[in-house]
């Protein structure tokens, strides 16, 4: 257990650092190399206790560090990221996105919960342990990347090239939010991801809709036909072969999910939808945790003027479960589209390069046991829920393949904190709770009580 003599840094002290961190606009999708490097260097300075340093990749740099002063103890690799999502519509923000603002019991700003705050509290804890006890209970390595929000395209090459240096008994991810704020939770799985574009082209250029209307195919009409064919009226994906590798939802798993306290109406109200909809035959939570999805994320072509556009494009993404193979999913969608009768146009399906299989850690894994005990220490009156991340963390399957290590999700963000959206926020209480839980986790993993 956590010794009573450990004095955690006050949350206000951590928040002061977090304000500096948030002010660095490290949007990996659009920031300059100089901005990303400045952010990495700021973070490396907070890792001075572990020889913190910035190292090159073929993209934005990573921040590395290691404290290896516990001979004979296990070694963990702490993973997180310093990049953030774009702000979106600035008019939808109630406060400036790159200026952290305290708002009652939360702080707001881009990156406060995904993933700058959850990473920073780990570094603050490590510094406190070293200052007061002269060491950590186990060996700790750090790998903090700058491209997670764009699919970690250059992380695989870096990790494989430095696998020996990064070797660890367990990866602990400071990324990957708890499911909801009403109880502590651990995620035992995350969905995979593959994205693709469907492009439909017709005439060589946009055409006047009066002079040419009714004589040539309209790519937007054709694209609508293609997209409508991807699902049946019951919400099930209608692409042959899409569900290859999807495990059957057993009666035992259904019973486990059914035992989770979940209110469909509260969920509907929280997202502001007029009604819930999804694949028939499954509950809302079963669909969210156990079923694959194929979503249309955006459509472009033409505009509010009188033309027949020559081109229309849809961007799609699929969240994968079980043993679905991302390459096979793209091939199945391409074959489905090729078999459609859509005259007068040409159709191309292009898969994005970043493809991630689904990930799972068994509920009885020793890391889950240790993490559950750590959370019970911090939240003694609450049950620890084993949940599923419906999103994707690209690094998990990479670490398993390249390092032979499982990843434990141990983030003190929660999924309702406007990740990727305007007005992203972090509950201030999670700073102290997170530091206490990480301390308890490290102690348990080290075998000390």
From TrEMBL:
InterPro entries named in the record: Bact_exopeptidase_dim_dom (IPR036264), Cyt/Met_Dipeptidase (IPR051458), Peptidase_M20 (IPR002933), Peptidase_M20_dimer (IPR011650)
Keyword match Metal-binding: yes
Domain of life (superkingdom): Bacteria
Domain Peptidase M20 dimerisation: 188-342
The keyword Hydrolase appears for this protein: yes
UniProt KW keywords: Hydrolase, Metal-binding, Protease
GO biological process: proteolysis
GO molecular function: metal ion binding; peptidase activity
Protein name: Acetylornithine deacetylase/succinyl-diaminopimelate desuccinylase-like protein
Origin species: Petropleomorpha daqingensis
Lineage: Bacteria, Bacillati, Actinomycetota, Actinomycetes, Geodermatophilales
